[in-house]
Amino acid sequence: MINELKHLEGFRQEVRSWLQANLPADWHERMTGASEEEHVAFQKFWFRRMMDGGYGAPHWPAEWGGSGFSFAQQIVLYEEIARAGAPRLILYFIALYHVPATLLAWGTDEQRQRHLPAVLSGDEIWCQGFSEPNAGSDLASLRCRAERRGDRYIVNGQKTWSSNAHHARYCLLLTRTDPAATKARGISYMILDLQTPGVSLRPIKQITGASHFNEIFLDDVEIPVENLIGPEHGGWAVAQSTLSSERGLTILELAERMRHGFQMLLDAAQSPSPLGGRLIDDDEIRRRLVDIYARIQALRLLVNNMLTRVLEGAGAGVEPSIIKVYYSDLLRDFTELGVTLGGAKAQYLQPVLMGGGNETGYWMQDYLYSWAWTISGGSSEIQRNIIAERALDLPREPKLASAS
Ligand SMILES: Cc1cc2nc3c(=O)[nH]c(=O)nc-3n(C[C@H](O)[C@H](O)[C@H](O)COP(=O)(O)OP(=O)(O)OC[C@H]3O[C@@H](n4cnc5c(N)ncnc54)[C@H](O)[C@@H]3O)c2cc1C
Predict the structure, then answer these.
(1) 328 lines ligand 1 (CB under 6 A)
(2) Among residues 132, 246, 253, 256, which one is catalytic?
(3) How far apart (Å, rounded) are the C-alpha atoms in residues 194 and 218?
């Protein structure tokens, strides 16, 4: 892997210098305990600065205003972003990844022209409206109903867990347009303007006290037919394009952030304990540190193997599922060790670093949030099912009689 990237040393230095010159040195200070408004303003500022530098949309084709970087360049870029501890563009996650993956594969030219430049200008924040109260892992059983009347759909139903919907203008929405068809067959994919009458949001309060996601209620909401993405009743295939964009280089960045973040655990273990001595002198603490360190190295190797296969032109295969389970378990144990080492102040909820990574050093926040990783983007149990069926060739999970 390192060999594959050697020829990009000049590019790496360019990115590194750019980040040194452009990343505000005081951003941690400014974003720790920041309000939602400050968070949004800072995300917009940082996204625009990244765009101006040519790094904001590395995977977008140049013809649509992106950097058009090769896959190898993107690897280098994300490694450097993690190394610099730059903010994560969390508010733009859906707009930057899911929207182009969906519109470039399935959208009309009019939809692409309408939305892709607006995303890159930083003006359009998007959210995802897939999950429902009774359709998460089994997404194909979704029930939010869209009835066609002339040139509009009338939509009624509920979505849930929609991250950042309260900051978003548009939503990637899955609805059921043919209730008579078997599960996945009767689904359509639409663009919902969240300012349409009949749309209401209710924030969901998390265990950390924050509200990053929302319920979305749709009450006779009119969606024009030109907002349909892909064929009517053919939205399931479109959704696969959206979901595949989640399994890209994000995990490399996260793995790299964790590798650099390990130093925080070491520093905490080596500093004097209020009870005397240092925690690093405790055998059990040393064992846990070594365990985490070894697993971080293993994670990096797993990610490298996947990226090497992609660089060589082979598909990623089942590796993203393996890496997701491995990362989620490791993040939980990593942050739990942070709570152990962080002393009294790690035992209560401190203000969070908005736009920080998953290991900000505010350990109780980090630990509680780590559990979300075992659910979002397909739960660990579902990933294990995928690994069992696709990689280990174990018997498929029995389907319920009513399922298709
Ligand atoms: C931080 C976060 C952000 C999210 N953001 C969004 C978003 O922006 N938009 C959106 O649409 N959704 C979002 N989600 C929702 C997410 O996609 C769902 O939570 C996820 O798909 C699981 O669905 P569920 O919550 O309905 O749980 P369920 O599917 O009801 O599962 C409950 C439990 O049963 C287990 N389980 C279910 N089926 C099986 C099976 N076949 N075999 C073994 N075990 C099984 C699960 O693993 C889980 O432990 C988000 C979730 C989180 C945590």
Answers:
(1) no
(2) 246
(3) 10
Is 246 marked active-site?
yes
Ligand 1 near 213 CB (within 6 A): yes
Question: Among residues of the chain, what percentage have pLDDT more than 90?
Answer: 83
- Distance, in Å, from the CA atom of 142 to the CA atom of 136, rounded to the nearest integer, reads 8
Please report the domains of the chain, with CATH numbers, ordered by start residue: 2-88 (no CATH), 125-233 (2.40.110.10), 248-391 (1.20.140.10)
pTM of the model: 0.94
Residue 209 tokens read as: 């006290």
**pLDDT tens track for 320-365:** 999 999 999 999 999 999 999 998 888 887 888 999 989 999 999 9
CA distance 297 to 302: 9
- Closest ligand 1 atom number to CA of residue 372: 53
Q: Nearest residue CA, atom 30 of ligand 1?
A: 136
Spatial distance between the Cα atoms of 143 and 238, rounded to a whole number of angstroms: 17
- Is the CB–ligand 1 distance for residue 208 below 6 Å? no
Q: Residue 380 is encoded by which pair of tokens?
A: 């660990």
The predicted-structure confidence for 112-125, as pLDDT tens digits, reads as follows 999 999 999 999 99
Residue from 174, 181, 188 nearest 234 by CA: 188
- Please write the tens of the pLDDT for every residue from 146-184: 999 999 999 999 999 999 999 999 999 999 999 999 889
